[in-house]
Structures are given as structure tokens and as C-alpha cells.
Amino acid sequence: MWVLMDNAHFAIARSRFLEISQFDLTKEQAQVLYVLQVFGGSATQTQIADFTMRQHHSVSTLVNRMCKEGLVRKEKDPAGRGFRIFVTKKGKDKYARVTKNSVEMIFSSLSPEEKEKLASYLGRVLKTARDLLGLDYKPPFLK
């Protein structure tokens, strides 16, 4: 089963890479722009790292490159020690042009019910994997 999941992931990711690259974005940049959209236009680097499951230093490097390209901007977070990342107009405009045809075409082989079931199963597998990695661990004394 692992090989099947790994091969499916590779094929889907490769298809997505080919589609996104037409818009002069990397998959990682598109993912950050998506996260910023989900969070209403801004997020902390920690939120981006948690959402994407990437190392904090990798997110920091990626965000710095995106700042240089004018896709995002960084501001000192008044609520904490880190930075808050904001999507710029250029970033919004670029992400708005990105299509999702490859994903839609790949998953068109499933019925709506099958898509719901697959999403449910993958959600459970992802939660278990995150738990095993300690990604969502909070000590019992923290609520």
C-alpha cells in the first residue's frame, strides 16, 4: 500500500509542478500563497511551517526569496517575537491566475462520494502520521 500511495503522490505532485511552473511559481511558493489565502492574507512563519509541515528554516528561506520577488512582505509581529507574512497585490494576482486543472483531471476519476471517503481516509492517516511525528503535541498541562 505504501508504494501505491508514494507513486500516486509522486504522479500528482509532478503533474501539479508542471502546471504551476507555467505561472512562474514553484510548488512551494504556491503553497505559501495558498496558506496566506486560508489565513485571510497574512500568517506567521510558524503557522506557515505548521500548515505545510516544513522546517521553520526552510520556510524562512522560502519567504525571504518570495519577498525579493515581491510576492509577500514581512513585518515584525507585534504579538510575538517573529514575523508576520502578508501576501502582496503581485502575489494575489499571480496566485489568482494559477489553475488547478491537473488536480481536477486526476480526481475526476472518482465520484463525489469516493472523493469524500478518500478525503476522510487520508485525513485520518495524516492525523496519525502527525501524531507519530509529534507535530501537534501539547503537554497535558497546556490547554
Topology:
Layout: H1 2-21, H2 27-38, E1 42-44, H3 45-52, H4 56-68, E2 72-76, E3 83-87, H5 89-97, H6 101-107, H7 112-133
Fill in the CATH topology of the largest domain: Arc Repressor Mutant, subunit A
Structural class: mainly alpha
Number of domains: 2
**Second CATH tier, the architecture of the largest domain:** Orthogonal Bundle
Share of helix, binned: 55-70%
The count of helical stretches stands at 7
* Main sheet summary: 3 strands, antiparallel
Terminal CA distance reads 37 Å
**CATH level 1 class label of the largest domain:** Mainly Alpha
What do you see in this structure?
The protein is mostly helical and 143 residues long. It folds into 2 domains: 2-98, Winged helix-like DNA-binding domain superfamily/Winged helix DNA-binding domain (Arc Repressor Mutant, subunit A); 110-143. 64% of the residues lie in helices and 9% in strands. The chain has 7 helices and 3 strands. A 3-stranded antiparallel sheet has the order 1-3-2. Strand 2 (72-76) and strand 3 (83-87) form a beta hairpin. The chain starts with a helix and ends in a 10-residue tail after the last helix. The model has no long low-confidence stretch (mean pLDDT 93).
